[in-house]
Design brief:
CATH architecture of the largest domain: 3-Layer(aba) Sandwich
Structural class: alpha/beta
Number of strands: 13
GO molecular function, one term: pyridoxal phosphate binding
Enzyme class: transferase
Helix content: 40-55%
Order of helices and strands: HHEHHEHEHEHEHEEEHHHEEHEEEH
CATH superfamily of the largest domain: Type I PLP-dependent aspartate aminotransferase-like (Major domain)
Cofactor: pyridoxal 5'-phosphate
Domain Aminotransferase class I/classII large: 34-379
CATH topology of the largest domain: Aspartate Aminotransferase, domain 2
Shape: globular
Distance between the termini: 58 Å
Number of domains: 2
EC number: 2.6.1.-
Radius of gyration: 21 Å
Mean pLDDT: 96
Number of helices: 13
Low-confidence stretches: none
Length: 398
C-alpha cells in the first residue's frame, strides 16, 4: 500500500537527533550545567554582525513587497550572479550564474543533484566516514551506494580501493572535505589521485562520472591548512555549499548547487538538476535571506572560537589516554572507542552525562564523534567527566 523504503526511512532512528533530545531531557532534570552535550553539529557562535545589519537594513529600507515576494525557482538572479562572481574571484573559476541553483542548504543541493544525475541501477561511491544521509538520498532514487573505506588512522582516501570500486555503473562520487564526522581535510595529493582515477574511468567507460563536492565546512579550516577547490582538479564537478556553518545560520537553510562550466553536457546537467528540483517539490529559500546572503557572500563567522575549543578538547582527551584523529577542519573530533563497539562506549558515557555519537551510522563503528561547537565553558567542565569515563573504561595515558 505504501512504499516500504520510505516507511523504513521514517522509522529509522536518527541517533544524533535522539541523543540531542535525550540531552535536553537530562538538562531539564538535573540542570544544563551538569550535562555535556556533544551530539549535534549546530553552530554556537553568533552570526557575524554583517548578517543582522543586512537584515535590519532590508527590513527598514527595502520595498516590503519585493523582499517577501516569490523568487525564480533557481533563486534571485542578483544572488546567483554574486555567488558566481565570488567563486570566480576566490578560486579562479569561470562559473556562470546559469550554473548556480539556490537550495535549502547543502543537503538540498545533494538531494537535487543525485535525483538528477542518477537512474535506477547506477552506483554512487561514498567514502567512510560519511554523512549518514548520503545513503538515503542515493537509495531513494534507485541508485546503489558503494562504500569505500578510507585509510585507517588518517582517513585519507585509499586510492587503490577507490580505483577498484569504479565500474561501468559508477555515476557519482561524493566527497566531503572538511569531513563530517572526522574533521579531516583531503590533501591535494589525495584529490589529484582521486580525480586522475575518475578521468581514466570516464575514458574507459565512455560516460561522465560526476564529482559531488559537499562543502558545508569549507570555511572552517585551521592553522592555514588548505581546502582544495575540486573544480581546479576535475571538470565534471558540482559543488554543494551551505552557509549554515559559514555564517552561523543553520536554521535559515541557505545554500547552493554550483555546476562547473567545463562540465560535460553543461546545459543538460543544469537542466536535469533544475528538473530534479521541480520533481522533488523544491521550494526556493527565503527571498529576504537570499538578499542577506547577497550582501554577506564573503563574510565568515568566528572560526577562531572553534579552533580554541578544538585545541583544549584534543589536548584534554589525549592527556587522559584517548586516541583522536587530529581535525584540521569542521567542528568535530573523531575519537577511537576504547571498546570494540562505540555504541556500548557511548552508552557508558551517558552515565557521566557525556553525549557522544557512536560511529555506526558514519560507517566506522570503532570510532565516535564529539561535536565541539559548544560554549568553551562546556569543554572545560566536561574534562572531569571524561576523566571519570576514562577511569571506568580502563583508559590511561601510555
Amino acid at each position: 500500500m505504501f512504499a516500504q523504503n520510505l516507511i523504513d526511512y521514517g522509522r529509522k532512528p536518527n541517533v544524533i537527533r535522539d541523543l540531542s533530545a535525550y540531552a535536553g531531557a537530562r538538562k531539564a532534570e538535573i540542570g544544563p550545567e551538569n550535562v555535556f552535550d556533544f551530539s549535534i553539529g549546530s553552530p554556537n557562535v553568533p552570526p557575524p554582525p554583517e548578517v543582522h545589519a543586512a537584515m535590519l537594513d532590508l527590513l527598514q529600507h527595502a520595498d516590503p513587497v519585493a523582499i517577501h515576494s516569490y523568487t525564480p525557482a533557481p533563486g534571485l538572479m542578483s544572488l546567483r550572479q554574486t555567488i558566481a562572481a565570488s567563486i570566480n574571484r576566490r578560486f579562479g573559476q569561470h562559473v556562470e550564474p546559469s550554473g548556480i541553483y539556490v537550495t535549502a542548504g547543502a543537503s538540498g543541493a545533494i538531494a537535487m543533484a543525485l535525483k538528477g544525475l542518477t537512474q535506477a541501477g547506477d552506483e554512487v561511491i561514498v567514502f567512510t566516514p560519511h554523512y549518514m544521509e548520503y545513503l538515503i538520498y542515493t537509495e531513494a532514487y534507485g541508485a546503489k551506494p558503494v562504500i569505500v573505506k578510507t585509510l585507517p588512522d588518517t582517513f585519507q582516501i585509499d586510492l587503490p580501493a577507490f580505483e577498484a570500486a569504479l565500474t561501468e555503473k559508477t555515476r557519482v562520487v561524493i566527497l566531503n572535505s572538511p569531513n563530517n564526522p572526522s574533521g579531516v581535510i583531503y590533501t591535494r595529493e589525495t584529490i589529484r589521485g582521486l580525480t586522475d582515477a575518475m578521468q581514466a574511468a570516464e575514458a574507459k567507460f565512455g560516460h561522465p562520472i560526476f564529482l559531488l563536492s559537499d562543502e558545508p565546512y569549507r570555511e572552517l579550516a585551521y592553522d592555514g591548512v588548505e581546502v582544495p577547490y575540486l573544480m581546479d582538479f576535475y571538470d565534471d564537478t558540482l559543488v554543494c555549499y551551505s552557509y549554515s556553518k559559514t555564517l552561523s545560520i543553520p536554521g535559515e537553510r541557505m545554500g547552493y548547487l554550483a555546476v562547473c562550466r567545463r562540465c560535460a553536457a553543461y546545459e543538460d546537467v543544469v537542466d536535469v538538476c533544475s528538473g530534479a528540483a521541480r520533481a522533488l517539490g523544491h521550494i526556493c529559500t527565503s527571498n529576504l535571506y537570499q538578499r542577506v546572503i547577497e550582501r554577506c557572500v564573503d563574510v565568515v563567522a568566528d572560526v577562531d572560537y572553534y579552533k580554541r575549543n578544538r585545541d583544549v578538547l584534543v589536548k584534554g582527551l589525549e592527556d587522559l589516554g584517548f586516541t583522536c584523529v587530529h581535525p584540521d577542519g569542521a567542528f568535530y573530533l573523531f575519537m577511537k572507542s576504547p571498546w570494540p563497539d562505540s555504541m556500548e562506549f557511548c552508552n557508558k558515557a551517558k552515565e557521566f552525562e557525556l553525549m557522544l555519537v557512536p560511529g555506526h551510522d558514519f560507517g566506522v563503528p570503532e570510532y565516535l564523534r564529539v561535536s565541539y561547537c559548544v560554549d568553551h565553558d562546556t569543554i572545560l567542565r566536561s574534562l572531569p567527566a571524561f576523566a571519570k569515563l576514562a577511569a571506568a573504561c580502563g583508559v590511561s595515558k601510555a
